[in-house]
């Protein structure tokens, strides 16, 4: 019988580094534990679950002890929390986990997610512990980020704040974040630093706070519009799939390419640069292997990881934008990036 499973909510705005931190934690997973991870993406194509699965396969972590489920195409809590409870129940039954992680989309409604987790339905089943919010301090002075209602909601429910990508700070970013939290969320402790070389560990978070349940956070009544997800953009069988989503002034366009498609990375990156999305995730096949792209506008450092294992990528691309774009011309231009 499932009982008092330690459960952690990992929040953060677009590109804050939630999936990357989970990848580090997976590499540190105790061998005797079974972990379950529920990942929610704003984009309808979905890449995070594949990236997390790849991380377990490339580490010493036993992949049969890690269970990952993805809910793509909008917020988990929309439609009265039905997608969340369905996904939770399915994953709990399949994984029977010793520890549970939930990563909502950076554009979701974390108070509503936390209300479901701490509500009567999961009383005695989930032991909701530290809620961690990741913040890329390089963006804290950008009002589009710091004044966004979702960002503020993430901080309002946080038990700990992690200043992510700290190795990329070049000035007063950490001090700026500390001052912002002190002025706006005075009950929060000073943020913890996390970097690629020294990511904050789960053990640090648990030791720094407590391993006891948090007090249930009350969520205000929310009127949440169900995100609009377009069906595939007219592909013939065996052709590409293009899915779109829009909600709260943000738009996503994602493509699932054919497994045999290979791209010219220079041409693809040049096209992405021209479009200037606020968020890019990709894992595609190239002539020499595969390429992963993880980029956030405003925090210009990007991750482009090459592998020498052709055909091992999921061959997907996801763009999140602050404006609507016609997907059809973009699809045509993507085809021009294919290698013959």
Automatic annotation (TrEMBL):
A single Gene Ontology CC term: cytoplasm
Gene3D superfamilies: P-loop containing nucleotide triphosphate hydrolases
Top-level taxonomic group: Bacteria
Pfam families: cobW
Ranges where the CobW/HypB/UreG nucleotide-binding domain occurs: 6-173
Name of the protein described by the UniProt record: Putative GTPase
Organism this protein belongs to: Reinekea forsetii
